[in-house]
Amino acid sequence: MKILVADSVSERGVEMLRKKPSFQVDVKTGLKEDQLCEIMAEYDALIVRSATKVTERILESAKKLRVVGRAGVGVDNVDVGAATRRGIVVMNTPGGNTISTAEHTFAMMMALARHIPQAHATMKAGKWDRKSFEGVELRNKTLGIVGMGRIGSEVARRAKAFDMQVLVYDPFLNVSRAKELQVEAVGLDEIYARSDFITVHVPMSDETRGMINKDTIAKMKDGVRLINCARGGIINEKDLYEAIKSGKVAGAALDVYEQEPPKELALRELDKVVMTPHLAASTTDAQETCGIEIAEQIADALTGGPIRNSVNMSKIDAKVLRCSSRS
User: Fold this and answer.
1) What's the pLDDT score for residue 141?
2) Which CATH code is given to the segment(s) 2-96+284-326?
3) Which of 2, 15, 83, 312 is the most exposed place for a label (fewest CB within 10 A)?
4) Catalytic residues
């Protein structure tokens, strides 16, 4: 069986697959859609991270493909609907980069609170400016977390260690879990009204796209600070720009963007915006964990073992899966 690794993943994960005599593993990164379409017919499995977009056209050309594995949390770069219609299992590694993303979120929040990137830049320029960068403490501030999955929960734990009051919104969060994390479960409007900092940890969907916009920002405290290390587009960039210019929003820390890489981005002009290039999951620890996990999951799926962390398994008819496995 042939496996294509289309993005850079942990070498340990690749070697795990290569050690299995029934697998042939090809690593071909940086391929465009046309190039992938030309070769996909020979592969039984495809492994990607975020660079490769697994489109319907690619899936249509993959006559033998049985499984797509995403070494990371989201699968918004995979056409899950098209995969489901063709009986292809799509899986991810939801726990592999949890800690890295939570730590990056907290690092961004602290950088935002204390103006660390801006102060660093002036020191590099040979200046000694202690007056322009007065910050705020996190202690006794209210953090609003939208989305309390693995990452949101880890952010909450760190916030509690900094003596922050934590408000959370997640329609799937039960009372016992909220008590365990020592957080207060509230509605979105209460998050907006009470929070000094707001961080989002939700997937991209029709419901979450642009959920932070001029109307929801108007419900927030004056001087609120916003953090997005989840998915670009959850915060409307144009509305955020206007809110920072007006002083309604004191600042923002962004790791993800509506277009990646951004071409024209007005937010770059603002000193009150801290920006990183989609680095939240980019640690050696997280990438190794995700690479190993996706390798194990792909191996199991191709050899009749358990299918773990599938995002579309429940939507695929068992008969379709059996037929797919025999092809």
Assistant:
1) 98
2) 3.40.50.720
3) 15
4) 231, 260, 278
